[in-house]
Specification:
Shape: elongated
Strand content: 15-25%
Number of strands: 7
Structural class: alpha+beta
Strand order of the largest sheet: 2-3-4-5-7
Number of helices: 5
Length: 204
């Protein structure tokens, strides 16, 4: 009886073994064709050399319709000041300033000016700035070879000095106009009468 049971167990063991399954090889899928490559971008032609890299150039003529460029390296600028503002004083100071620099910051009793000097083919020419000079350092970076908008052009130094002296009357006239305009605005909106009424109400 024991032998029969052993044989049956052996037969069952043989039936329980599973044969190793063979994995199916993956089917190769063809990749879709690559779309046509776009055309190469057109190569841009190199631009003209920027005045920042080449430095200041000589200014042969005035270009009032173009603005000045900026320099990477600032230029030397002389600073002079006249106490009385007479012709001889300004003339001597400008000549002394142009000995050490090509741009001079002039301080007069009635205002400040900046004078640039350039050499054309035959003689010197001058450009004068008559405006706000709060940021003095910015005039060291200006390159007038690209444009002279905002500057007055003069052929000789005499005309530059004459303009500086004559501009004194113009500035005084504009200051008086501003004072008159302010007084008219105050009177129109009743600021003076309102303050007067307020004072009267305090003492009432």
């Amino acid at each position: 009886m024991g032998k029969k049971g052993g044989k049956k167990g052996k037969k069952k063991g043989k039936k329980g073994k599973k044969k190793p399954s063979v994995a199916a090889a993956p089917v190769a899928v063809e990749a879709p064709p690559c779309p046509p490559c776009p055309e190469k971008p057109k190569e841009l032609q190199p631009l003209d050399p920027c005045p920042e890299s080449t430095g200041p150039h000589d200014v042969v003529r005035a270009q009032p319709n173009h603005y000045p460029a900026l320099l990477r390296i600032p230029e030397t600028m002389a600073v002079v000041g006249s106490e009385n503002g007479c012709y001889d004083s300004i003339c001597k100071l400008l000549r002394a300033g142009f000995r050490c620099a090509e741009r001079v910051f002039v301080m007069a009793p009635w205002g400040n000016y900046v004078v640039f000097r350039y050499h054309n083919n035959t003689d010197f020419i001058y450009f004068l700035f008559d405006g706000c000079t709060c940021d003095v350092n910015r005039f060291r970076y200006l390159d007038l070879s690209c444009g002279t908008a905002g500057f007055l052009f003069f052929d000789n130094l005499h005309d530059v000095i004459s303009y500086i002296i004559q501009s004194r009357k113009t500035r005084l006239y504009l200051e008086n106009l501003n004072k008159i305009a302010i007084d008219q605005i105050v009177e129109e909106y009743g600021a003076v009468t309102y303050t007067q009424k307020a004072k009267c109400m305090r003492f009432a």
